[in-house]
Amino acid sequence: MTTITPAFQDAVHDSQYCFRLLLKAMSEPGKRVTLDKSQGFGDMQAATAQILLSLADNATSVWLSPALQSDKAVLDNVRFHSGAPVVATQNEADFAVIAERDLISCSSQWFAFNQGNEEYPDQATTVIVELDSLTSGQRISLSGPGIEARCDAYIGDVPSEFVNFLTSRQELTDFPLGIDLILVHQQDVLCLPRTTSVEVSSCM
């Protein structure tokens, strides 16, 4: 039985549309955008699938967290629609996807991803993190390039280890090194590039 499911109806225009929205989200950290041109693959959320359809190809490698790695529909569709090879080692990945259910088990592995190097900081892994919400739960305060003063964002019900990583990652990695994060929930996307400082926002 085939596990291949439809992707973009118009591969060129839909991928360009999603790419533009991703650029907007990356240049304006904390701003949520909605990708609505395709469904997810297996248990992979819709926004994640569309990000890979827009950014990954046969020249980029993808690492999947255990829950996604064991999902045949995810593997088959990522390989079929993007042509991207799925790798077993985090440091080899151009793109990585962490499923919501794997967030706790992956919490100690953030620095196993490629952080780039001074000559080629763009070679760092871009990590897509699937969450249970981007409109409720843990509130964080963001500052840095692309943000006028400060802005607040929500990242759902996440383990404390993930919050600790977000708030300390700039202290542990010298700029311009570091990974860029794309947070997703269903069709919604919020980006936290390596230049964005994150603090825990106190409750009002």
From TrEMBL:
<dbReference type="InterPro" id="IPR038058">
    <property type="entry name" value="PhnH-like_sp"/>
</dbReference>
<dbReference type="InterPro" id="IPR008772">
    <property type="entry name" value="Phosphonate_metab_PhnH"/>
</dbReference>
<dbReference type="Pfam" id="PF05845">
    <property type="entry name" value="PhnH"/>
</dbReference>
<dbReference type="GO" id="GO:0019634">
    <property type="term" value="P:organic phosphonate metabolic process"/>
</dbReference>
<keyword id="KW-0456">Lyase</keyword>
<protein>
    <submittedName>
        <fullName>Phosphonate C-P lyase system protein PhnH</fullName>
    </submittedName>
</protein>
<dbReference type="GO" id="GO:0016829">
    <property type="term" value="F:lyase activity"/>
</dbReference>
